[in-house]
């Protein structure tokens, strides 16, 4: 009589209810924000006659450009495990430098100088945080105060304007461009697309996630953690400088108090979009969706004539929900 000697393979255990719930929660975080965006768009389209007009949509995207750029820089920093609270101060100081350089040279040279200044300020911020070893939240908060102070010193507390002869060229980022969108919106889309690919598809992007997920493990694997952090701050600085150029182009001037507090809105957009405040998780597209959502809420309040006090309450609740969800997901995956 023959005996069956075929090895028996144990059946794979069925996923538990807790595992299924965790997967569902992760999908909600990934795609729930997109669903919320779509729902708000549909609701505003039905409740107002002006939401879907070309003028309002162009204005909506133009408003998103500044917060979207700052949120992109904030997201890249948060993924790597650091916070950048210098964004708005870097924005103001680089815009002032751009205007001042433009007065003695050319508008285009001035804009280039603003971007270079943003990168250099980001380099200084990153070096301070990495070399000092202080928590990035505290280190960048202190550095932002220094940058604001420098902005006041450079301008003497006054508003700086481009020369009258070049004032029109200075406002080029407000000019209509492709599909009727402003040049600022086109620049925003191009920059975000490039940075999104860099984070998602390059070696630098993979190292960014590795450092944010576990800095010590990344260091032991040969990744230069300090260099990754400094580079993240430099990218954030460039994004801040570009956002500063957009605001300066709109106003036709620059001043030391520009965009005060917008770094918190940018971090809020990143967190609402699904980027983990603990680092190692997130994506540039999530930051843009978060920025769009916050801008949509503001746009909706204006179109519906609602009190903006409730807008702040709603945004605060969204941030609280996003952070609570992130913490819950972290516990579920331990």
UniProtKB/TrEMBL annotation:
It comes from the Bacteria. Keywords: Cell membrane, Membrane, Transmembrane, Transmembrane helix. It is found in: Cell membrane. It holds the Pfam family BPD_transp_2. It is a multi-pass membrane protein. The chain crosses the membrane at residues 31-52, 64-87, 107-130, 137-161, 173-199, 228-248, 254-272, 284-303, 309-329. The keyword Membrane applies. Its main location: membrane. This is ABC transporter permease. It comes from Paractinoplanes ovalisporus.
